[in-house]
């Protein structure tokens, strides 16, 4: 039997969905920022660190980039209590997303570190730049310009990744959609509207990232 | 460290014949869904990209539809896409297995990713090559298969490996509709009373083996094929080197 599509009942949930979208945004921004810092440490370790540290970071990266994020969060959520560490679902998802992002962002930022040439640093030294000035005026702009497209691309992927927080009961966009589904049973309508909100969310994020890249770093990122 | 001790106590009880068969079946299901989904996805993606590039303008509405399709599907989380497909099948009243639903969702997502990849490969080829081939009286189809693709697929291969591996990892979300694959198997074993550490740990290792070996195979293929000479004859038509006496 063919059922009828009824979008009229969905309208009441839409403000609720937008509140959920804010939670998703918060999760992705937090995980991304912490991940970038961890990734910076990891990339510096791989480039300049000693042998054992380098091997440890490489193992970390290949483990976290070769296993699904969902299973990693399941592992953290259910296995850490056995060691006496109790995490709320939100904390577990944030931790899982951060650790996962750190793996990928290490790999991305390593490329930036390897693109610096010794001659650039020497040139800055010849001009009488201090260490801090060299990093701030010569190395950082260079690295950021090379990495900005890859980083913004990964941020968009992480925004999509927040949807798996719903599985652990976090009330973000997909979680609210699942709740609304449990009340109203208009499943297809609810999830198609959720999909549209995600599309809008990522388009807005891409446009903002494009504008930031143009304004601050003079980088052109592909928006569509 | 108490948990680690319990892990060793529990291991003989966990790695029994039936549990291993169960995990093997789940791993097979993961691989089957990924394989068929990616295969269909690449076929659809190839058609989309070729239509978008080859039919340069004449079909305006079709072109806009294809662009909207790829852009929209790429911006939907896989979980939401999966639920949309699941409930769309339910709404249509068609009685299909969970395997077909999962494969459809994977194929939809893969088609958008592949279309974008393949289009990037086409874009890297100089458009004058089309003109040159057409002026040599080749048909568009034979131009595509004999001139454009042999060059383009070397550019397409590396990102395709990455996307396929990430798709295999994303199939873990299919556990949410109740299809027996690796993540679902871990959840069931966990509910049967085994500790989460051993269930999810084992499944993580299995995922690692699958995706790492796939990524390795992709890299090996890249090394062997992408950096190889263009054709066996290419070595013979090298310009003769003039050695200064």
How many distinct helices of chain A?
Answer: 8
The succession of helices and strands of chain B, N to C, reads HHHHHHHHH
Strand content of chain A: under 5%
What is the average of the pLDDT values of chain B?
A: 85
Compute the CA-based radius of gyration of chain B. Answer: 23 Å
| Low-confidence spans of chain B | 235-240
Span between termini of chain B: 75 Å
Share of helix of chain B, binned: over 70%
Q: Give the count of helical stretches of chain B.
A: 9
- Strand tally of chain B is 0
Oligomer, anyone?
A: heterodimer
Helix content range of chain A: over 70%
State the separation between the terminal residues of chain A, measured CA to CA.
Answer: 39 Å
Summarize the structure in short.
By secondary structure, chain A is mainly α. Chain A has helices spanning 14-48, 51-65, 69-79, 89-114, 118-126, 131-161, 173-184, 187-217.
Q: What topology emerges from the helices and strands here?
A:
The complex is a heterodimer of chains A (224) and B (245).
Chain A: H1 14-48, H2 51-65, H3 69-79, H4 89-114, H5 118-126, H6 131-161, H7 173-184, H8 187-217
Helix pairs in contact in A: 1-2, 1-4, 1-6, 1-7, 2-4, 3-4, 4-6, 5-6, 6-8, 7-8
Chain B: H1 2-14, H2 17-54, H3 60-74, H4 78-92, H5 98-123, H6 128-135, H7 140-170, H8 182-191, H9 196-226
Q: What does this entry look like structurally?
A:
The complex is a heterodimer of chains A (224) and B (245). Chain A is an all-alpha fold. Chain A has eight helices and no strands. With 245 residues, chain B is mostly helical. Chain B is built from nine helices and no strands. In chain B, helix 2 (17-54) packs across helix 5 (98-123), helix 3 packs across helix 5 (98-123) and helix 8 (182-191) packs antiparallel against helix 9 (196-226). Residues 235-240 of chain B have low confidence and may be disordered. The interface between A and B is large, with 41 and 44 residues.
């Amino acid at each position: 039997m063919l059922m009828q599509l009824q979008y009229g009942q969905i309208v009441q949930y839409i403000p609720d969905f937008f509140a959920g979208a804010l939670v998703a945004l918060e999760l992705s921004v937090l995980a991304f920022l912490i991940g970038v810092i961890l990734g910076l440490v990891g990339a510096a370790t791989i480039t300049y660190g000693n042998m054992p540290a380098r091997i440890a970071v490489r193992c970390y990266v290949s483990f976290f980039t070769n296993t699904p994020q969902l299973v990693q969060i399941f592992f953290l959520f259910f296995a850490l209590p056995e060691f006496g560490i109790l995490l709320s679902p939100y904390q577990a998802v944030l931790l899982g997303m951060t650790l996962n992002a750190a793996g990928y962002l290490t790999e991305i930022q390593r490329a930036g570190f390897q693109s610096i040439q010794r001659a650039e640093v020497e040139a800055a030294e010849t001009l009488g730049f201090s260490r801090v000035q060299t990093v701030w005026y010569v190395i950082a702009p260079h690295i950021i310009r090379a990495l900005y497209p890859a980083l913004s691309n990964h941020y968009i992927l992480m925004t999509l990744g927040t949807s798996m927080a719903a599985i652990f009961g976090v009330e973000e966009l997909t979680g609210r959609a699942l709740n609304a589904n449990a009340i109203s049973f208009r499943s297809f309508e609810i999830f198609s509207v959720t999909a549209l909100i995600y599309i809008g969310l990522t388009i807005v994020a891409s446009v903002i990232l494009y504008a930031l890249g143009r304004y601050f770093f003079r980088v052109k990122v592909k928006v569509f | 460290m108490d948990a680690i001790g319990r892990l060793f106590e529990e291991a003989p009880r966990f790695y029994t014949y039936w549990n291993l068969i169960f995990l093997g079946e789940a791993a097979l299901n993961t691989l089957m869904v990924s394989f068929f989904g990616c295969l269909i996805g690449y076929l659809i993606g190839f058609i989309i990209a070729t239509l978008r590039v080859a039919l340069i303008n004449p079909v305006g509405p079709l072109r806009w539809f294809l662009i909207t399709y790829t852009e929209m599907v790429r911006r939907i989380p896989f979980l939401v896409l999966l639920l949309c497909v699941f409930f769309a099948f339910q709404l249509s009243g068609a009685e299909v297995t969970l395997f077909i639903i999962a494969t459809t969702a994977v194929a939809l997502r893969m088609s958008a990713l592949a279309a974008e990849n393949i289009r990037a490969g086409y874009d890297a080829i100089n458009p004058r090559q089309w003109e040159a081939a057409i002026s040599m009286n080749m048909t568009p189809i034979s131009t595509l298969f004999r001139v454009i693709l042999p060059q383009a697929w070397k550019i397409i291969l590396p990102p395709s490996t990455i996307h396929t591996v990430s798709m295999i990892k994303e199939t873990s979300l299919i556990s949410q509709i109740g299809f027996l694959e690796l993540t679902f198997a871990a959840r069931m074993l966990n509910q049967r009373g085994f500790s989460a550490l051993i269930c999810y740990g084992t499944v993580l290792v299995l995922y690692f083996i699958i995706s790492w070996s796939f990524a390795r195979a992709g890299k090996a293929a890249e090394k062997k094929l992408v950096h190889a000479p263009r054709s066996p004859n290419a070595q013979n038509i090298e310009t003769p080197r003039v050695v200064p006496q």
